[in-house]
Amino acid sequence: MGACCSKFSFCWWHSHLKPSLLDSSDLENGGKNEKNAFPTFTEFSLDELKMATNDFSPENIVSEHGEKAPNVVYKGLLENGRWVAVKRFNRSAWPDSRQFLDEARAVGNLRSERLANLIGCCCEGEEKLLVAEFMPDETLAKHLFHWENQPMKWAMRLRVAFYLAQALDYCSCKGRALYHDLNAYRILFDQDGNPRLSCFGLMKNSRDGKSYSTNLAFTPPEYLKTGRVTAESVVYSFGTMLLDLLSGKHIPPSHALDLIRGKNFLMLMDSSMEGHFSNDDGTELVRLATRCLQYEARERPNAKSLVTSLMSLQKETEVPSHVLLGIPHGTATPPQPLLLTPMGEACLRKDLTALHEILEKTGYKDDEGIANELSFQMWTNQMQETLNSKKHGDAAFRAKDFITAIDCYTQFIDGGTMVSPTVYARRCLCYLMSDMPQEALGDAMQAQVVFPDWPTAFYLQAAGLFILGIENDAQEALKEATKLEAKRSKN
């Protein structure tokens, strides 16, 4: 497979695909739907990625290989609300920072619906990190080898092979034909259940290019001689992926080829697929795998011909991928942010007692210099009465006498001589405790009017909205509160 191909060849299979297989949008540049347009490549700061991953918390690890892997992948939430996968390299990898940045930028120029695209990187000191689109619906390995409810359908297996071939052809056309350690853990499923090729394999794990980590039984023969990945090596690995899809197991190529040569290829087939595919389809896929697994690299097909061969085998092309995969649509990503503070967690749990403790402990420190505008009546009896009503309200708040606290705080607010966001926050909680969520929501919004960037005001709005059952708005308020809190702690 050459390092590049003509634009015509890329466009040919693009234009000849059925619209259903393209999901009505372009494979490149996100199509016409701007909502789904790909983000531009960004160089993130280490602090931004620490915040996104909760300081690289072990709880955020999504890599199949676990915490002790040399390069660990974390799930993260950026400030703009986008979920990402963050790959943190071992400190001994990429000693040349300039080379790392050049590689990352080159891979970051690729944009396709068949890739889990690279959207950024970070290079600070010894830290080297890549940031990619987050794919919420697990890996091919999970769906193929470790399924719980039902085996992957035949039509979905064919679609995985086809989309993967498209991804490799796209990369080849863009001058990135080399892919390192292609395996079932590198195929990820997006929120629509569509298979995508992880962009991380387009980056070398280190500067010498020696990046195969799988069992040697699955390694291309020429790699064992030279220690280098070639375009033909990638096609060999694609052949091992076809064996995975055919058998539902990770069978060493040598064993599979022995079965095929002995005309026992039906022994390769996943027994759970019996009766779900025609012999012709099975034979064609076995033939294609055999071509990919040729010992002589030059005898293997290139990515473009893989696309052509697999296109004619596609089944149930009008059925969405999430239906074929048997997963709920659009619900894979958990709605709540990762980086919740104790106050955020209390809102999410609707734990009013915990909110009371937090507000009581915080006191009025956030009022300092915010809106303590005193009128000319400040030394009059009216001012003294207003301050006394606040004082009595605080005493009732501490004693959890919420009805009395509401009355006292109302007197303070109606006095009009002094504005306090904390009083609105406290009366808001008293309303929540008294089963008056609508009134509580009004106070939380009033606190925001007085102090527009106050996290507490948004937290309390979230609490009120959760109690009212307005989930989407509650999540948005919680997200805003978390963002403001993070910004405040950074300053």
Topology:
Layout: H1 7-16, H2 19-22, E1 42-43, H3 46-52, E2 72-77, E3 83-88, H4 97-108, E4 115-116, E5 118-124, E6 127-133, H5 140-145, H6 154-173, E7 187-189, E8 195-198, H7 221-226, H8 231-247, H9 253-261, H10 279-292, H11 303-311, H12 321-325, H13 342-349, H14 352-362, H15 381-398, H16 402-415, H17 421-433, H18 437-450, H19 455-468, H20 471-490
Helix pairs in contact: 6-8, 6-11, 8-10, 13-19, 14-17, 15-16, 16-17, 17-18, 17-19, 18-19, 19-20
Report on the architecture of this protein.
The chain is α/β, with parallel strands linked by helices and 491 residues long. It contains 20 helices and eight strands. The protein has helices at 7-16, 19-22, 46-52, 97-108, 140-145, 154-173, 221-226, 231-247, 253-261, 279-292, 303-311, 321-325, 342-349, 352-362, 381-398, 402-415, 421-433, 437-450, 455-468, 471-490; strands at 42-43, 72-77, 83-88, 115-116, 118-124, 127-133, 187-189, 195-198. The chain has a five-stranded mixed sheet, with helices on both faces. Strands 4-8-7 form a three-stranded mixed sheet, covered by helices on one side. The two termini are 53 Å apart. 40% of the residues are buried.
**Termini separation:** 53 Å
Element pattern in H and E:
HHEHEEHEEEHHEEHHHHHHHHHHHHHH
Kindly provide the radius of gyration, computed on alpha-carbon positions and rounded to a whole number of angstroms.
29 Å
Helix-residue proportion: 40-55%
- Report the total helices: 20
Percent strand: 5-15%
Query: What best-fitting shape do the alpha-carbon axes yield?
Result: elongated
Which regions have little confidence, pLDDT < 50, spanning 5+ residues? 1-20, 22-26, 29-36, 64-68, 206-210, 331-338, 371-378
Name the assembly state.
single chain
How are the strands of the biggest sheet laid out side by side? 1-5-6-3-2
Helix/sheet category: alpha/beta
Could you report the average pLDDT, rounded to the nearest whole number? 82
Beta strands, count: 8
Largest sheet: number of strands, sense, barrel closure:
5 strands, mixed
